[in-house]
Amino acid sequence: MMKSLNRIPRFLLAVVVTAVATTAAHADRLTGPGEDRMFAPAHTTVRYTDLFWGFRPAVVTVAGERGRVLELQVYDADGNLVGSDTGDSCTVSWTPRRVGPYTIKVINRSAIPNFYDLHAD
């Protein structure tokens, strides 16, 4: 299950990123593939913060209930939109320019609640 890094002080996060970046890894997400099953009430946003390797392809996918509209948005550490997609199943693919945190937002655009599965790698 994915964990939020919002509560970790930036200096500590930098130490963790540096330590992890010096070890060999196969996943594009620093800690390997991540998954979450979540419930989003109508017209709400669920936020994640996750670390990704630089210069390696990264993919985040969200699959919600059929016929209910989700929007997936990914932002870099500077707040720039990296990519977005809308539908009951969404995918954002990109190649990070550096190792670091990325914000993932899953927005339920439907007027009814939605269960969804999120996968990041």
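the 2nd protein, sequnce then structure:
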Amino acid sequence: MSINDTEASSYLDLKLLEQTFAGKQSVFQSLIEEYSSQVKALVPKMRQAFEDGAYESLEDSAHTLKGNSSLIGAHLVQSIARDMEAASRSRDAGTITARLEEIDTAVERTLFYLGRLANE
């Protein structure tokens, strides 16, 4: 597992991934599959919660996404989720809206780079 890409490092903590998963490719691939499945379920759930004004549900989902992203080194998604979690607590619709606009691209690129790493 070695990827040296400036753009990838904008999305992933490459050092953490290398230290944690070196020589554990099958574990890493399983974790990526689980993370992908979870994030693809959480993001729409967060959007719906915001549309419904269900800030507690949004906060819970953002917290889960933050934790899952931390475990896999997805620091940009983790940061967006952290901001959304805090904004949910304070009912800051402007921040939530802005971060929801960013999350799809962040997730897409994160999953792309995780996939590249998994296939090395």
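The chain has a mean pLDDT of 92. Residues 10-118 form a domain with the Four Helix Bundle (Hemerythrin (Met), subunit A) fold (CATH 1.20.120.160).
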